[in-house]
Predict the 3D structure of the following.
Amino acid sequence: MTQWMREASLIAGQWVTADRWIDVDDPATGERIGRVPRCTGEQTAQAIAAAEQAMGPWAKRPAKERAGILRRYFDLILANQDALAALLTREQGKPLAEAKAEIAYAAGFIEWFAEEAKRIYGDVLPSHAADKRIVVLKQPIGVVAAITPWNFPAAMITRKIGPALAAGCGVVLKPASQTPFTALALGALAQEAGLPDGLLNVVTGSAAEIGDVLTSSQTVRKLSFTGSTDVGARLYAQSAPSIKKLSLELGGNAPFIVFDDADLEAAVVGAIASKFRNAGQTCVCANRIYAQAGIYDAFVEKLAAATAKLKVAPGTEAGSEIGPLIDDKAVAKVREHIDDALSGGARVVTGGQAHKLGGRFFEPTVLADVKPSMMISREETFGPVAPVFRFETEDEVIALANDTPFGLASYFYARDLGRVWRVAERIEAGIVGVNTGLISTELAPFGGVKLSGLGREGSRYGIDDYLEIKYVCMSV
Ligand SMILES: NC(=O)C1=CN([C@@H]2O[C@H](COP(=O)(O)OP(=O)(O)OC[C@H]3O[C@@H](n4cnc5c(N)ncnc54)[C@H](OP(=O)(O)O)[C@@H]3O)[C@@H](O)[C@H]2O)C=CC1
Ligand SMILES: O=C(O)CCCC(=O)O
């Protein structure tokens, strides 16, 4: 399909296979695209050893040299944007325009951290004694394990490997089994860019088997994971005996609040962008939309009208805005959430059914009269359903928005400046979008609070998790 599609894992600079394989399908058709090796625990251990060996000389290279190689990597990703996007859409299903945007976003993390490699500053601190000097060094943390999900097969990888490589670490990456080809293509491009053999390893296979080896290894000093809260919690526990540093970017349940004084047209545009990106399969997607009583009916009507216009089609078709869901389980979860809401008194304003294209396509849906007790309010739907709740006061909606164990993204539309400050400060979330439904950029710190995780990715803060601080006390 493209020169970058590999049916092999990348370990110690070699493309390797295994006795067992995992089939990968196209979510739009269910057809098999190809297969990737189900690597063994032993192969995972080889990848860890290769990363450790490669990172010694890599970390010693001047930051400017590391930055130069990463900059070449960025250029190569962008030069191959169309081919990578086509591969991504084939295995993940999202519309080609979104896939292209994701490749640019993914490349942006490599560019940003290539630049940050040169800014890993140490420090000299005021001393406690006349004959002592306090020097602070920042050093690479060690071998990094990265475990990534299927919903952003490129960007979730580069925002982990970008800072890791920039800091001087070696990496073992385990991509999601449903979308391994984009990851392997990123591995091939890293080789092409001149990354030393073994510095970036891409190991495909059984999550539990590879995860066990990565978490139990003493050599792996840092684990960065994006995915479900259940798996994140398991990896946290498994990493405890070896006291690894963890970054966990887990599930969300984002509130999207529209106050009476909001610009309604802008709020609809923001809600569509936030809710229906990647067919709703994003951890920062609006999951609960709260509209204040005075504008509730008008907002629901406008949102439904805009939702009904979204084009559902295979991601490869021109103009596609909503592709298929990733698998049958995802479709079943959407169905279950809608049925539960309807049985509790909610009503469908638009959509509500499997799409006539069949398979994993689902109609973009708006539900009204939704209640906080419903499943759709308590759990992340991860699908194209916008449930709209009614509220009366600012205090009430803050309480509703915060009544969740999750705290990743949140959004609200309002024009009163005092309210903007109050709400932004009171919402329990790592990210707050004010009068916007799109908050993702490599320039900002991305991450959550509560069960949504630990650590921040992107921005100048994103490299800290890949560094250790060493205090050197000098007697002069
Ligand atoms: N925060 C986010 O961005 C995401 C949140 N989710 C949420 O999670 C739900 C389930 O999605 P799902 O794909 O099952 O997410 P998972 O958390 O199961 O998968 C994410 C990654 O973790 C790996 N993994 C799974 N089990 C283990 C394990 N025991 N040890 C090590 N690695 C493991 C997966 O590998 P493999 O693919 O081989 O199973 C994949 O690479 C979604 O419906 C959504 O609500 C999902 C994806 C992203
Ligand atoms: O669902 C996720 O974890 C990916 C978030 C994508 C983004 O960075 O916006």
In short: Residues 9-250+452-475 form a domain with the Aldehyde Dehydrogenase; Chain A, domain 1 fold (CATH 3.40.605.10). The pocket of NDP (ligand 1) is lined by residues 147-151, 174, 176-178, 207-208, 211, 226-228, 231, 234-235, 249-251, 283, 380, 382 (CB under 6 Å). The radius of gyration is 23 Å. The mean pLDDT is 98.
